Amino acid sequence: MSDAWGLFVKYTDQITAIVTIFGILPTIFVFARNQMILARETLLARYDAVNRSYIEYQQLCLDHPLLQTSWYLAPADGDHPAPSAREMISKALLFDILTSMFERAHITYRLAPKAIYKSQWPGWEAFIENFAARADYRAWWNDNVGDNLDRKLVKGYSQYDRAFEGFMDKKFREAEAIP
Which residue of 16, 40, 116, 167 could cross-link 112, Cys pair, CB 3.0 to 4.6 Å? Predict the structure, then answer.
């Protein structure tokens, strides 16, 4: 008995280290697994927020189809009366909501893992390019965001993310260059 006890005492530090290591490994595994689950849930929540904003915007467009703020434009079917001041304000507000949705998508997918960026962003970019090519949206942008320092906020910047503004300015330049 004394030999076994003597060995135990002699190797107590090593035994403690082994037990600690085997105790830490499952903890590390559980921590890493929980971090992966949290990252996935965060990403899905961001995707869901972008998707929800798109659906909400489409609902607003459906509620106000004559304002022509949707991706789907009604065909020209004759003369339409000039929009009222209220309709012009509504259209401007819808374009502001649209732009906030674009900004959210831009930031979300800019920060997303590469695989998600590659699978989701091209559709959003095409959506944005469609609006960048529209004269009414470009006019709204110029009046409310781009190159209009009296309407911009602190130090010449608007309320939008600067990287997003730069991206949009590039899209407008590209759209204007297309004959």
Answer: 116
- Give the separation between CA 94 and CA 97, rounded to whole angstroms: 5
128 domain residue, yes or no: yes
Nearest to 134 by CA among 66, 73, 59: 73
Domain that holds residue 122: 50-68+83-177
Return the structure tokens found at 110. Answer: 């800019």
Q: Is residue 12 part of a domain?
A: no
Give how many domains the chain has, as a whole number.
1
3-state helix, strand, coil in the chain (%, to 5): 75, 0, 25
On the 0-12 / 13-18 / 19+ scale of CB atoms within 10 A, 33 is exposed
Would you say 73 and 29 are in contact if contact means Cβ atoms under 8 Å apart?
no
pTM tops 0.90: no
Other residues' Cβ atoms within 10 Å of the Cβ of residue 40: 10
Question: What residue type is assigned to position 171 of the chain?
Answer: K
Does residue 3 belong to any structural domain of this protein? no
Question: Could you tell me if residue 58 is inside a domain?
Answer: yes
Taking the C-alpha atoms of residue 167 and residue 99, their distance in angstroms, rounded to an integer, is 12
DSSP class per residue in 111-149: SS-HHHHHHHHHHHHHHHHHHHT-HHHHHHHHHHTTT-T
How many Å apart are CA 43 and CA 41, to the nearest integer? 5
